[in-house]
Amino acid sequence: MVLLLVFEDKNVKCLCYVSSRKTLFVLLRAKGTASSQDKWLLVNLQSTKEFSSHMLNRDTWANEAVSQTISTNFVFWQVYDDTTEGQKVYTYYKLDSIPVVLVIDPITGQKMRSWVGMVQPERLLEDLLTFMDSGPKDHHVTLSHKQPRESSIPVVLGIDRERVERMEARLKEDILREAERYGGAIMVIHETNDGQIFDQLPVFQCLCCCG
Question: Between 201 and 137, whose confidence is greater?
Fold first, then answer.
C-alpha cells in the first residue's frame, strides 16, 4: 500500500511513493503547504479493493503530462480508505464512492470539484485548466469583490408619513382633552438654550385658533 505525494521545496519538485501508514503528511499539513504556496490541493482517495483505483495509478497519475501539470500547479495527496486519514476524508466530505479525486480550497477546506471512479488523463487535464488560471488567494479576492459592501446597501430608518400624521393627530387630541379638563389651561414646558425651564400658561385658545 502506497501514498503518492508531491514534495516541493524551492528548487526541488518530485513525485515519490512512501508508506501510507508511516507518513506524517496528513490532510492538515497538505492544506497548509498548498495554502502557503497559493496552490489548490488535489486529493485522491483510493481503495485497494477497487480496480479503478489501480487504473488511476497506472494510466492517469503515471501519465507524464498529468504528473508535470500537477507538480507545477497543485499540491497532490493520495490516501487510502483503510487509513485513519482516509476515513477522515471520506467522512468529512460525505463521500459515497471510491476512488474519488477532489480539488480542495486549502484556505477554507471547501470541496471545489470532484471526479468519481476512473478519470482519463485527457479529461482530468481539461477539467483542471480552470484551477490553473488563478490560485486560491486570487479566487477569494474575486469573491470579496462580487459581494455587496455594507455601505452600498441602502438602509431605511424611521417611520412612514401616514403613521407620523396619525401620531400628530392623536397628540393634538390629548392636548385638547387636557385643556377642556382644566378649563382651557394646560401646562407647557419651555426650555431655553442655556438649560433654564419655564412654565407657560395657557395655550388652549391658541391651539383652537390655529386649528
Answer: 137
Question: Is residue 12 scored above 80 in pLDDT?
Answer: no
Higher pLDDT: 152 or 68? It is: 68
Helix (H) / strand (E) element for 9: namely: strand 2-9
> Nine-digit cell at 4?
503518492
Residue that the C-alpha cell 425651564 belongs to: 197
Joined together, the cell numbers standing for residue 72 give 507545477
Strands (DSSP E) contained in 33-143 are: 40-46, 74-80, 100-104, 111-116
User: CA 94 to CA 35: how far, in whole Å?
Assistant: 23
Give the separation between CA 124 and CA 41, rounded to whole angstroms.
Answer: 14
Percentages helix, strand, coil for the chain (3-state, rounded to 5) are 45, 25, 35
DSSP-derived letter for residue 76 is: E
Instruction: Tell me how far apart the alpha carbons of residues 65 and 53 are, in angstroms, rounded to a whole number.
Output: 19
Can you tell me which residue has the cell 488560471? 133
**10-29: average pLDDT:** 47
Strand 40-46 and strand 74-80: the pairing is parallel
Task: Tell me if 85 sits within 8 A of 27, measured CB to CB.
Answer: yes
Domains of the chain (ranges; CATH) run 2-134 (3.40.30.10), 161-210 (no CATH)
